[in-house]
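Need the bound structure for manganese (II) ion, inputs here:
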Amino acid sequence: MTTYFISDLHLSLHSPELAQGFCRFIGNLKDAEALYILGDFFDAWIGDDFDTPLSQTVATSLSSLSESGCRVFIMHGNRDFLLGKEYCQRCGAELLEEGSLITLGDQTVLLLHGDSLCTDDTQYQTLRTMLRNPQWQQGILAKSIDERLQIAKQARMDSSESNAAKNQDIMDVNQNAVQAELDKAGVTTLIHGHTHRPHDHKWSHGDQGYRRIVLGDWTEKQGWMIRFNPDEASNPDQGLLLEKFPLV
Ligand code: MN
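Answer from helper R.:
Posting the output first, comments after.
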């Protein structure tokens, strides 16, 4: 039985091949005990009441996985933070809080989307505080679907404009923020996505070893995942593996 982690699929109506690739990936998870989707599953989400062929296809695919006995967890990213419990229910999934700790074999692992670690991007962190404010979110969800689509379109344009002007370094995680989150949680392993810089980082701090595994973003051609196989867990490097795979 294997546990899978994925993130940053950015599923959208504009990339049907990606959605098909995702459904094939789900259909092939025969040995899955749990699937963790760590944010930016959808490229945009304006509310569970906005039903589309994409949201229906994805819900059908995930609920059949869930019915087969695999637990499915969805964490918010910076693009789909309005995804709610109602849609999760349709997927047979549980909404997972950011910063959740899970047990894999004999280790405890911290799970984040990853945007909270990009503390050098102060402009984004200010925006994030607003976007994650429940009152602000309720105000948005009270608007009509047409208004919300308009707001989302504007937000995407603003974001790509401001990101294009930013130094690439400030859009990666801040190492002090990483260390602080690990210390606060009292664990040595972190899994996250968001930065689209897939890598298995290892370092020492004091006399303790640490590990941060970063998931990659999906394209129509390839996906990224982290796999945990308890049968290989005596060796942590092999038990927890970052992998890229073709989506065709
Ligand atoms: Mn993200």
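Comments: The radius of gyration is 18 Å. The chain has a mean pLDDT of 94.
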